Amino acid sequence: ALRGRGSNLAAWLSARREPAAASPDEAIDELARFVERPGEWTTLTHGDMAPSNTGRTVSGWRLLDFEYAGVRPALYDALLWTLFCPFPPDLIERADRAYRDTMAAGFPAARDDATYVSARARVAAWRMLDLFHWQTPALLEADRVWAPNVGARGAILWHLARFHPLARAASSDPIVTAIATTTAALERTLRARWGAPPDAAAVWPAFRDRL
């Protein structure tokens, strides 16, 4: 399915009359090969680490709802903070450091900066491209609910705003860079139309006193 995501991007760019600098189809094909065979990053992941799928018990935190569990790249579950949810930047960085430190015990590649940021950006690119399949250019005409306090437009803006810093950190990865070149053009035009992505304090009341 990932191999068809270039057409989804093209549809968005066409709807906004924003031409792509170059087709990312070849890069997306390479990304699909990484997703199919993540090599040393392969493991079983939960697959849906939304805040609503965690619970605090007397014996500690627990993960709930393993409906989307599967074998895939190990950094998939880190998408909760690296891509999906509008959290404060300091919280995102703290979560990522803790996850990386824990992962390194089972995935030595996580200790290498270049390898880690490349794998992280590739997984984020995969899921960001999927979002442009699920959310069509019909959003240009009207928004719809994505999650409590967040519309689908906000979700798109947030995904783009989070992906591009990850892509810049992995600038030596040609696959990530080729995809980011196209999505950066889309982010510019969508921000001009919709404004900035949602503020974490507006989405999560618990952060209002901190931001």
Q: How would you characterize the overall build of this protein?
A:
There is one protein chain. The chain has 211 residues and is mainly alpha-helical. The chain has eight helices and six strands; from the N terminus they run ααββββαααββααα. The strands form three sheets. Strands 1-4 form a two-stranded antiparallel sheet.
Topology:
Layout lengths: L4 H11 L9 H12 L5 E4 L8 E4 L2 E4 L6 E4 L5 H6 L4 H15 L9 H22 L10 E3 L2 E2 H18 L4 H21 L5 H4 L8
Antiparallel strand pairs: 1-4, 2-3, 5-6
List keywords for this structure.
single chain, 211 residues, mainly alpha, 8 helices, globular
What separation lies between the terminal Cα atoms? 39 Å
**Overall mean pLDDT score?**
90
Order of helices and strands: HHEEEEHHHEEHHH
By DSSP (H or I, 4+ residues per run), the number of helices equals 8
Number of distinct beta strands: 6
What does the largest sheet look like? 2 strands, antiparallel
Structural class estimated from helices and strands: mainly alpha
Percent of residues in beta strands: 5-15%
Assembly classification:
single chain
Poorly predicted parts: none
Work out the radius of gyration: 17 Å
Q: Overall 3D geometry?
A: globular
Strand order in space, largest sheet: 1-4
Helix content: 40-55%
